[in-house]
Design a protein that fits this description.
The structure holds 2 protein chains of 2 kinds. By secondary structure, chain A is α/β, with parallel strands linked by helices. Chain A has 2 domains: 218 residues, P-loop containing nucleotide triphosphate hydrolases (Rossmann fold), CATH 3.40.50.300; 209 residues, Rossmann fold, CATH 3.40.50.300. In chain A, 31% of the residues lie in helices and 27% in strands. Chain A has 13 helices and 20 strands. The longest helix of chain A is centred in the first third of the chain and has 23 residues. In chain B, helix 5 packs parallel to helix 6. Classes of the chains: A alpha/beta, B alpha/beta.
């Protein structure tokens, strides 16, 4: 099947490997409130035309009246299309009066009259209750599938089925595609997931894809774990300035674009400042940057930034502040990817990984996402800096507990060192990929101009 | 309204400040029966060849007591007016029909657009209520056809916020569902009265 039936949303289509197969029989399943009706309506309004209209049929679960009343608040729900390209009808009365046989007669007449391109039956599950036995329901399904495939029509059977019914309910055997919408509790939150359980004749993105219900339909965030086609990108031979003289000084070969750098250290050691340096000095050199922070809100950050003579209103810098409370990892990553695409930024600073990690709940998912992000950025030569808080103030023994440091090209450790009855800040380049570096511990001072390395000290204490 | 264009009525409201409609929450103009009579008065003067300004001046004089206002002819309305309910769902039609009957109307129910057209032609209702979702949602089309057949008052109802579209399709009024029974009954009464007024005026002319 080459023709695809688009949802009108690129993310939903991406999960479906480009859209549903055209003229297929699709099932949308999930518990009440999971957004099944919205998804079916989304497909319908996007594809319906006066010539090949959509027909939405309610049965005996949700009254048609309510489907319509709540539906019209959705952005894609064009009430003026009703009566010309989208029709809403109720099968409930037909079912109650004449059972499944009358439903078949009704549908046959309807298909002849309207020649619909899309038909949705919601709830389909309710129909089985009208069958006298399993055999009569199978007979009905067979007849119905016959009617629905006689003409090029894409069909949605929407129902509050549980996953366990897929193996037992006969309608699933007939379906070409099964889209499951489910909710899982993670910590204190309910996370919605969309999963493709079956898609005949097509590849699709496996696994659970987070989604949210918004006024313009389902916002799906395709799982980022899919490995990015690694365009064997060339390491540009020319090195550039990281924007931080302190780091440039310690990287013998200089800093190369597209690298990811993790700055680890305890609270107050200068991680955020280092990130700001990286962004604003990049901006000064004509590279757009994004500050993706979960730490300081705009006002707080503005105060810090202004103190160092920079400005958040700079056209070359975009601030993406999100509160770490009630943050959805999938949504956050997509927002960042969109921002990167929109602004064509060359640099991004993520502050901090710990906040993201806590929002992720799921450790594996977090690593997959971060890996995917770093890979995408490397492909596009976008330099990434990430801050990572370490628990110990002195004598740091471990940088991260989640193996993220292995994913970064450079790891810089900031720490406090006691010397001469004072606490000094110090910087060490722990790791650089594809570069030589100077592994010394160098003390630094935060001046109004930013981070300035002190002269090497002969008796630096660790 | 009354065969006068909406923009004209609006500009008179601004210009002369005589017939000032109240606004609904949604910003729509609501006219009292008295104001409808005043508009009818203006319309008649326009029909006699007066300018809008002169018509309003006369109206102002009348209101000031210079001229006695023409009493509306209180012809007895036909004993039982027939209301056609063209609805998608039987239950809604029966329930609304019940309230209209208690108000003294006779009620005929049609559950498809086809049936509605047929009953409209054969039963000659004084007023029709069209649910926009009838027959899959072809209510607006039905309105257009009924209005073409005869100009009797047409009330559209729907859960969809399609007021403007319904009025454009020929409806004289629109009510959003779910309906308050009293709201339905009073709107039906108003439309019937207005229709009666129109008929009386047309008969007197």
């Amino acid at each position: 099947m080459s023709d695809r039936f688009s949802s009108g949303d690129r993310h939903v289509d991406a999960v479906l490997g480009g859209g549903l197969p055209a003229n297929a029989l699709n099932m949308i399943i999930g518990l009440p409130g999971s957004g099944k009706t919205i998804l079916a309506e989304q497909f319908m309004f996007h594809n319906a035309s006066a010539k090949r209209p959509g027909v939405y049929l309610s049965t005996v679960s949700e009254p048609l009246e309510k489907i319509v009343r709540y539906g019209q608040d959705l952005a894609f729900f064009d009430a003026r299309a009703i009566g010309t390209s989208v029709f809403f009808d109720d099968l409930g009365q037909t079912l109650n009066d004449g059972g499944l046989d009358d439903v078949l007669t009704h549908l046959r007449a309807l298909i002849i009259e309207r020649q619909p391109g899309v038909i949705a039956i919601d709830s389909f599950k309710a129909l089985s209750a009208y069958a006298t036995n399993g055999q009569s329901f199978r007979h009905f399904l067979h007849e119905l599938a016959g009617i629905l495939t006689a003409l090029p029509t894409t069909t949605f059977w929407v129902g509050e089925y549980g996953r366990e019914e897929i193996a037992t309910a006969p309608e699933f055997a007939v379906a070409d595609a099964i889209i499951s919408l489910s909710t899982r509790r993670e910590a204190e939150r309910a996370i919605r997931h969309l999963e493709i359980l079956k898609l005949r004749g097509s590849g699709f993105m496996s696994g659970e894809h987070a989604y949210r219900i918004a006024h313009d339909g389902l916002h799906v965030f395709p799982r980022l774990a899919e490995s990015v086609p690694l365009e064997t990108y060339e390491l540009r031979p020319e090195r550039m300035s990281s924007g931080i003289p302190a780091i440039d000084q310690m990287l013998a070969d200089g800093y190369w674009p597209g690298a990811s750098t993790m700055v680890a250290g305890p609270s107050g050691s200068g991680k955020t400042l280092m990130g700001l340096h990286f962004i604003f000095n990049g901006a000064a050199a004509g590279e757009r940057g994004i500050i993706a922070t979960l730490q300081e809100n705009t006002t707080q950050l503005d105060r810090i930034v202004t103190g160092f003579g920079w400005s958040l209103t700079s056209e070359s810098v975009e601030l993406m502040y999100r509160s770490p409370v009630d943050l959805y990892l999938d949504e956050w990553f997509y927002e960042l990817l969109d921002a990167l695409e929109r602004t064509r930024a060359r640099r991004v600073f993520i502050d901090s990984l710990g906040d993201l990690r806590r929002a992720a709940v799921d450790e594996l998912r977090f690593r997959e996402y971060l890996y995917s992000l770093l890979q995408r950025c490397a492909n596009q030569q976008i330099s990434v800096m990430m801050s990572q808080e370490t628990p110990a103030l002195f004598g740091i023994t471990q940088v991260t507990d989640n193996g993220i440091s292995h994913l970064s090209d450079n790891v810089i450790l900031l720490q406090f060192v006691p010397r001469d009855a004072q606490i000094r800040r110090a910087l060490t380049v722990l790791k650089t990929r594809a570069s030589r570096h100077d592994p010394d511990v160098r003390e630094f001072t935060i001046t109004p101009e930013g981070i300035v390395l002190d002269e090497p000290h002969s008796n630096t204490t660790r | 309204m009354l065969g006068l264009s909406q923009p004209a009525i609006r500009s008179w409201e601004d210009r002369y400040g005589l017939i000032v409609a109240e606004r609904s929450e949604g910003g729509r103009r609501l006219y009292t029966r008295k104001q409808l009579e005043q508009l009818q008065f203006v319309k008649e003067r326009l029909g006699e060849g007066l300018s809008a300004a002169d018509a309003h001046r006369l109206l102002a004089e009348q209101q000031a007591g210079t001229h006695p206002i023409v009493e509306r002819p209180t012809s007895n309305p036909p004993s039982r007016l027939l209301v056609l309910l063209a609805y998608r769902d039987r239950r809604g039609a029966e329930l609304n029909g019940f309230f209209l009957r208690t108000e003294g109307c006779e009620v005929e129910i049609a559950l498809t657009a086809e049936d509605a057209e047929e009953k409209f032609a054969s039963r000659d209702p004084a007023l029709s209520v069209v649910e926009l979702m009838i027959s899959g949602g072809v209510g607006r089309e039905l309105c257009e056809r009924l209005k073409q057949l005869r100009g009797t008052p047409l009330l559209c109802i729907s859960s969809l916020d399609l007021r403007e579209e319904a009025l454009a399709a020929g409806a004289d009024a629109f009510l959003k569902k779910p309906l308050e029974p009293t709201q339905l009954v009073s709107t039906v009464n108003d439309l019937l009265d207005q229709g009666g007024l129109m008929r009386a005026v047309a008969g007197a002319a």
